[in-house]
Specification:
It contains seven helices and ten strands. It is α/β, with parallel strands linked by helices and 277 residues long. A hairpin with a 4-residue loop joins strand 7 and strand 8. The radius of gyration is 20 Å and the shape is globular.
């Protein structure tokens, strides 16, 4: 699978924000969602480094797709003049927004899409965590993919892979600590490729680093109830490790549905549970 890397900016619309989160970005891989507060009390909402599948154009466009494409045409921009925004790219982005066309007025919205580049060379690591209540032990399982034509098909990238596995038991843990240590270990085992994709069925661990961290930092790492967030030191140390790579690695976090017949997600779950037996 070849992916576009895009940024999506949606201005101050909370309706568009929630609609995009539920219908567009929820199961996509992306780096971060950042909300910038403006002096006038409004805010700018942006999703950065989103992986958009690059699709083949159909022989004939449907009427609905043509309507959506017309609404989005002038909202799609070439971010750095390295990628030509051609009809194939416009079609791929149009399909991305098809589920919300009837829910919001795309044409009148402040939506803006920056196309940065397209990639087909990337690394993927799956992670999962577990917890054993009667011993208070947590654990994680990791599957690091190695592209191989004779391997197992990955439903996310549509490529075949062989793989390495890792797992570890963590004393005095929780399920969330297991999830976080899995993500931490994945980061510590990146290969040399620039683009690194971490896939987990834990919304908690994924959202910690691509969404919540930025709000927590602005609020002195306190939640909406003004209480200190759980696992603060571990979360900060993991976030700092992601930034230590600089431009050498761009990290994409992806949530996947658990127990949804994804062989690598299922294997992670099995690894994490088996080490606690």
């Amino acid at each position: 699978m070849t992916f576009l890397i895009c940024n999506i900016h949606i201005g101050n619309s909370t309706i568009l924000e929630s609609t995009i989160e539920q219908e567009v970005t929820k199961e996509l891989a992306f780096n971060s969602k950042i909300i910038t507060k403006l002096p006038n009390g409004q805010k700018n909402i942006s999703f950065y480094f989103i992986l958009v599948p690059l699709l083949e154009e159909p022989e004939e466009y449907t009427h609905d797709i043509l309507l959506i494409r017309d609404k989005l045409y002038y909202k799609i921009h070439n971010a750095n003049n390295t990628t030509v925004v051609d009809d194939k790219i416009i079609y791929s982005i149009t399909k991305l927004f098809e589920p919300i066309n009837t829910l919001v007025d795309l044409e009148k919205s402040d939506l803006s899409i920056d196309v940065i580049t397209q990639i087909d060379d990337y690394s993927i690591i799956y992670t999962d965590g577990s917890f054993k209540k009667n011993t208070n032990e947590a654990s994680y399982g990791i599957v690091k993919l190695k592209e191989n034509l004779n391997g197992v098909l990955d439903p996310f990238s549509n490529k075949k892979y062989k793989y390495e596995t890792m797992s570890e038991k963590i004393p005095n843990g929780t399920n969330n600590i297991g999830e976080l240590f899995g993500l931490k270990t994945a980061i510590n085992n990146f290969d040399s490729k620039k683009y690194q994709i971490i896939i987990s069925d834990s919304e908690y661990s994924v959202k910690c680093f691509r969404e919540w961290f930025y709000t927590w930092k602005d609020n002195n790492f306190r939640n909406y109830a003004k209480k200190p967030i759980a696992n603060k030191d571990l979360i900060i140390s993991i976030f700092e490790s992601t930034k230590a790579f600089g431009d050498n690695h761009i990290i994409f976090f992806k949530w996947t549905r658990g127990h949804n017949k994804n062989p690598f997600n299922e294997l992670c779950d099995e690894l994490a549970k088996n080490i606690l037996k």
